[in-house]
Fold:
Amino acid sequence: MNAEDVARYLRDNPDFLAEHDELFTQLTVPHPQHGGQAISLAERQLYALRDKIRQLELKLVELIRFGEENDDISAKVHRLAVQLLEAREPGLAGQLLAESLREDFAVPYVALELWGAGDVPCRFPDSVQRQIEAMRHPYCGAPESMELLACFGESAPHVRSVALIPLRAAGAVFGLLALGGAEPERFYAEMGTLYLGRIGELAAAALKPQP
Structure:
């Protein structure tokens, strides 16, 4: 019988050690932190349980931190929604939106491009406009075109990452909310876009062209 046979037997007979509890003190295994020192099986199990508890505590701390961050973002989105409702006018709503993103969300570069209202044309080239209209979710990552970066004006050379949020009304795209970061990691491809999408929906409702 080799070691694998013993391991398989113990897996197939989980009550074996319970029925032979004297083995917990008779068998020795290497210390998890001091390899040259032998400890009893019972002590080794205690170390394993303590290590598992530490891992669970770290996970709990991480979950609490994520929860607090989400609560903070939710509160900021709520304040923004209230401001947009109180604006009652697209021009003021656009101004309040940009101020909230810069001050509450600490976004250094904010650009808002609107078209389709009356005779206002899209300033982007046709290829970029088609790209925006094809987006089903906010895009986060490195800027993909210089034409698109132009919406940030003089700040364009400082933008290293972007979040692009198409604004829709009745299914049609009528604008773009662009957020820029000075660091490549500010808006990265794998980041969640739930709150960005909600901000986009709020902005679209407040800024949509009037019939």
